[in-house]
Amino acid sequence: MSKRTPGPLPSIWATGQAKPHRQRSDAYVAGNAHPAKMWPHIATTAIARYSKAGDTILDPMCGVGTSVIEAIQQGRNAYGVDLEPEWVELARANIEAAMAAHPGSWGEVVQGDAADLALLLDGTRLRAPVDMVLTSPPYGAVTHGQPDTSRVTGGKIRNRAHRYSTGKAKPESLATSSASRLQAGLEAVFAGCLLALKPGGFAVVTARPFTEAGALVDFPSFVIRAGLAAGLTLAERRVALLARWDGALHPHVTFFHLHNVREARRQGKKLFARAHEDVLVFRKPS
């Protein structure tokens, strides 16, 4: 048994006892408009379980920097990579605030395609393999977003902050890829993670199913296939709750996700509000 935790970690993580916006510390100074942010309590649980103080953590698809920020706050160092310059800008501002509050740790973010991970990390302060990878890949047409009510729009409710890019999506973006390109892109990212990770190190990936064109897409299975194809081994599979648990589950859902679920159920479709996501724990063979 690892000495990093007082005992075995439960298969189900109670990471939804607080709403996600209440999980964010004052380090998130630049906002959190990204459409698919990792929940802080999921990141902190994974970091506490699969790393130790002083370790270095890598997030190859870091968005606004949640995993990097939470790593700094737990006494780790961290790198982040993201394709979109707007998220890199927000992440850097957030990480600067986290480092100011926790001067014993540092974080750094690089802009670029995570499929070229080895090249991107050349020239950073990374001089040795990282101890852990922690990431949440982009997926599908998102239902996340923040509603502008009629008080703001003067008419219908409008969705905002629901896209991975405010401009035209880059051709290499995984979020807008077909299933085959998504699989190949994830394999390339995980192959870079394998090179960056120390032997025996953990790569923790969060993923959830999503609905596209009325069909359920088993995205966690995509992730597993890509990780195995890249040379990682699947060590554990956990569940992180996206809901408060008090004997019953109370999902924390966005306005638009709840609206879409209700509309689908009115049409007789078996669609449910998401109450969890899979935590896939890979390991680099030692």
Describe this structure in words.
With 286 residues, the chain is of the alpha/beta class. The protein has one domain: Rossmann fold (3-Layer(aba) Sandwich), CATH 3.40.50.150. The protein has eight helices and 14 strands. A hairpin with a 3-residue loop joins strand 12 and strand 13. The chain is globular and about 55 Å long. The model has no long low-confidence stretch (mean pLDDT 82).
Secondary structure topology:
Layout: E1 12-13, H1 40-50, E2 56-59, H2 66-73, E3 77-82, H3 85-101, E4 107-111, H4 117-121, E5 130-135, E6 146-148, H5 150-153, E7 158-160, H6 179-196, E8 197-207, E9 210-212, E10 215-217, H7 219-230, E11 233-241, E12 243-245, E13 249-251, H8 255-266, E14 276-283
Parallel strand pairs: 1-11, 2-3, 2-5, 3-4, 5-8
Antiparallel strand pairs: 6-7, 8-14, 9-10, 11-14, 12-13
Topology, number of strands:
14
Share of residues in strands: 15-25%
- Enumerate the spans where pLDDT stays under 50 for 5 or more consecutive residues: none
Order of helices and strands: EHEHEHEHEEHEHEEEHEEEHE
Question: Can you give keywords for this protein?
Answer:
286 residues, alpha/beta, Rossmann fold, eight-stranded mixed beta sheet, two-stranded antiparallel ribbon, 8 helices, 30% helix
